[in-house]
Amino acid sequence: MVLELQKPRPVWQIMFSTHHTDVGYLYLVFGIVFLFMGGVLAMIIRTHLFFPGQGVLVSDSATFNRIFTVHGLTMLFLFALPVANGIGNILVPIMVRYKDMAYPKLNAIAFWMNPVGAALLWLGFADTTWVSYAPYSIIRAPGPAADMFIFGMKILGISSILSSINFVVTIVKCKHPDLPLRRVPLFAWSMLTVSLMTIVAMPTYAAALIMMLTDRLGLSGFFNPFAGGDPIAYLHLFWFTFHPEVYIFLLPAIGMMYEIIPRFSRKPLYSQASGVFAFVMLGIIGFASWGHHMYSTGMDFTTKVVFMIGTLAAVPASGMHVFNFLATMWGGRIRFAAPMKFAVGGIALFFSAGAGGVLNSAMPLDFISHGTYWVVGHMHLFLIGTIGFGFVAMIYYMFPYITGRMYNEKLASAHFVLMFWGTVQTFFTQHLLGLEGMPRRVYDYPTEFTSWTQLNQISTIGAWMIGASFAIFLASLIYYSAKGKEANMDDPWGIGGKYYYPVEAKNPHGGHSGY
Amino acid sequence: MGHDTAEWVFVAIVIAVLCYVGVDSWIVQKEVEAVPADAEVIKVTGQQWFWSFEHADGTKEISTLHLKKDHAYLFEIYSKDVMHSFNIPDWVVFEDAVPGHTNHAWFAPNEVGTYPIQCREYCGLLHYNMRGSLVVEDDKS
Ligand code: HEM
Ligand SMILES: [Cu+2]
Ligand SMILES: [Cu+2]
Predict the structure, then answer these.
(1) Is the CB of A307 under 6 A from ligand 1?
(2) Which residue from B minimizes the CA distance to A298?
(3) Number of domains comprising chain B
(4) Most buried residue among A15, A31, A354, A457 by CB atoms closer than 10 A?
(5) Ligand 1 test: best mutation among A307, A382, A383, A440, most atoms within 8 Å of CB?
(6) Nearest in space to A470 (alpha carbons), one of A417, A419, A400
(7) Do B90 and B131 fall within a single domain?
(8) Predicted ipTM of the assembly
(9) How many CB pairs lie under 8 A apart between chains A and B?
(10) Domain limits at B61?
(11) Same domain? B59 vs B126
């Protein structure tokens, strides 16, 4: 069987294609490229912090602040969203049995907005932090970087709204008439949920960005206290979008685990209905908790309590996913091939991240953790531990279908061990650093607290392990897509059962051979 | 146990834990926020990139704050420019300094010593170095 990527095609044919698998590949390659660009920044940050007081690698705080800002923006908007969109593009139409996305041209346009936004973010290299709180971002952040940040985010935001509309229409309107919505595979459900969430959440941030821009230009003073405005208003608008957005980053990874876990457990999924219910519930309740990022801004007691309840109310939905995974694996004949290793590792880290999140949401505890390295540890257990692991699992899973070849299982194991250990070491340690009071977003820290130095060094060594694991990943992706053993396309892991997959997609340019 | 019972039991346990966390937080936070009536007001002002303090009697200090043991203090927290966050980690004093707003935090140190003061909200170039110290002294008067 000859597959799309095996048939040499000129690159421009993929680039100008509007076919969903091609757009999906573009998203995937884009996201993986930025994973490595953001990863390099992360290595610079962690290496720098290994040596307090010495200015290693970065010798001024202005540059350091720009580096962690662009690191965060890159990982969230140029890696996590594009990879989810890429895999969504490839799989969703197949899962709902439609020939393409509902609006192929819009799909390609949405993708091509990404490089433009990325260029603005990277060429500007702003220092506003990814949250870019007012009034710093308005009265102090140096231009043109901050302005380029605003336009870059604006473009990425519009792109994600466009692709979300596309996913919603594809799934709800274009699915095969014989396929009831409740039977649509859970990965497609995760894309449906996050697309609806994006459509509801993102416009608020888009408006806040415009207000920030006019504030910066001095035309208005919405968030500028020195022109009659209120910075707290910005925080509300920002977190109204971005607390739901954290679930938008998360849920596709959970959806991918739903693809992988039953297959490698060689058992049917424990409960489709519970998965659908948990997605939808999180999609709704996720909108009731944004204020947990603002407990210390001077919020009154009642408001804090309301947001705490909103946050806690969203937790059972996440718990239901964990239960569903475990119940599926229970009594299964599990094959721990690379996709399964990463999926199970991701679930373990998801669980610990969620437990930490619950502690954050408890008001008195948040006054200890907020603004410290604890929060950095918390979010990274989700961002790397859950999303990173889910994506990597899915990329290994799709590898044979996309390339027709097998990756190397031993190297994949090495990747897994290094990445899992590294993640635990880096980010659990950061929780402790937070408890010791170390603030986040700092260029340097005093050396008289020896525990800070030691914990930072432990954390950095973990980060190097993650870095090494991704070097293995990149090298083996490239090498084995050209030189790997040919995969048995009907059953690459020899576990039986039926798969959907990129192989089934008909590509008008690829001259796909079909079965 | 039946197919669904297990899941219901699991969800019920999760909800019970969450209720416990919620109720306990409510109780503790209520206590934490009950400012004693005799707390002495200290005005704290954050600006890029240092803290300044004004005691009730009008004395001013910069970066280093001297307080007496076994007294309650109520911080009134302001900012002159961007957001900062006033933090004495050892005493869990923590509240944002937001320009245009007045925020509050209180504590009553019961041990003599010197403790770090820092900023815990990103405020630009020297955020990392926006540090000071709190000196708690025996009350001799
Ligand atoms: C069980 C679910 C979760 C709970 C209960 C939870 C709770 C919280 C709370 C209370 C905070 C505020 C901490 C602080 O700044 O003081 C927080 C911060 C954060 N969370 Fe979560 N969270 C959950 C899931 C997630 C997920 C799934 C993600 C990402 C995929 C995520 C990413 C973040 C990020 C990025 C921040 C820090 C934002 C910043 O200030 O830069 N969280 N979380
Ligand atoms: Cu949140
Ligand atoms: Cu600061």
Answers:
(1) no
(2) B103
(3) 2
(4) A31
(5) A382
(6) A419
(7) yes
(8) 0.93
(9) 151
(10) 40-137
(11) yes
**B33 to chain A: which residues are within 8 Å by CB?**
301
Same domain for B28 and B75, yes or no, is no
Q: Quote the minimal CA–CA distance from A18 to chain B in Å.
A: 42
Select from A27, A173, A31 the least CA-distant residue to A91: A27
Does the A2-505 domain belong in CATH 3.40.50.300? Answer: no
> A57 by DSSP, 3-state: which?
coil
Looking at the fold, whether B87 and B19 belong to one and the same domain comes out as: no
Round to whole Å and give the CA distance between A466 and A424.
Answer: 10
Q: Does residue A243 contact residue A207 with C-beta atoms inside 8 Å?
A: no
Q: Where are the domains of chain A?
A: 2-505
DSSP category for residue A434: H
Ligand 3 mean position to B48 CA, how many Å?
8
Alpha-carbon span B66 to A16, nearest angstrom: 68
Which of 69-128 (B) contact A at CB < 8 A? 81-83, 85, 87, 89-90, 92, 94-96, 98-104, 116, 118-128
My answer on whether B92 and B113 are in the same domain is yes
Please give the structure tokens belonging to residue B29. Answer: 């936070």
Q: Which of A296, A294, A292 is nearest to A314 (CA)?
A: A292
The amino acid sitting at A31 is G
Q: Are residues B121 and B72 in the same domain?
A: yes
The per-residue b/e assignment along A238-271, b for 16 or more CB within 10 angstroms, e otherwise, is: bbbbbbbbbbbbbbbbbbbbbbbbbbbbebebbb
> Do B82 and B59 belong to one domain?
yes
Among residues A402, A481, A396, A400, which one has the least CA distance to residue A90?
A402
Q: Compute the distance from residue A200 Cα to the ligand 1 centre, in Å.
A: 19
> Atom 14 in ligand 1: which residue has the minimum CA distance?
A370
Output the CA–CA distances (angstroms, integers) from residue A289 to A243, A309, B28, in the order listed.
Answer: 7, 8, 20
Q: How far apart are CA A374 and CA B8, in angstroms?
A: 32
Query: What is the B87 CA–ligand 1 centroid distance (Å)?
Result: 21
- From the CA of B67, how many Å to the nearest CA of chain A? 21
User: Are B82 and A140 inside 8 Å of each other by CB?
Assistant: yes
User: Do B69 and B14 reside in the same domain of the chain?
Assistant: no
CA distance A229 to A212: 11
Say whether residue B45 is in contact with chain A using an 8 A CB cutoff.
Answer: no
Q: In chain A, which residue's Cα lies nearest the Cα of B128? A: A442
Chain centroid to Cα B80, Å, comes to 19
Q: Is the CB of A420 under 6 A from ligand 1?
A: no
One pLDDT digit (tens) per residue for chain A, 515 residues: 344 555 667 788 888 889 998 999 999 999 999 999 999 999 999 999 999 988 889 989 999 999 999 999 999 999 999 999 999 999 999 889 888 999 999 999 999 999 999 999 999 999 999 999 999 999 999 989 999 999 999 999 999 999 999 999 999 999 999 889 999 999 999 999 999 999 999 999 999 999 999 999 999 999 999 999 999 999 999 999 999 999 999 999 999 999 999 999 988 899 999 999 999 999 999 999 999 999 999 999 999 999 999 999 999 999 999 999 999 999 888 999 999 999 999 999 999 999 988 988 888 888 889 999 999 999 999 999 999 999 999 999 989 888 888 999 999 999 999 999 999 999 999 999 999 999 999 999 998 888 999 999 999 999 999 999 999 999 999 999 888 998 887 788 888 766 655 444 444 444 333 32
Residue A463 · residue A419 · CB < 8 Å: no
A292 lines ligand 1 (CB under 6 A): yes
Counting atoms of ligand 1 from 1, which one is nearest the CA of A247?
Answer: 27
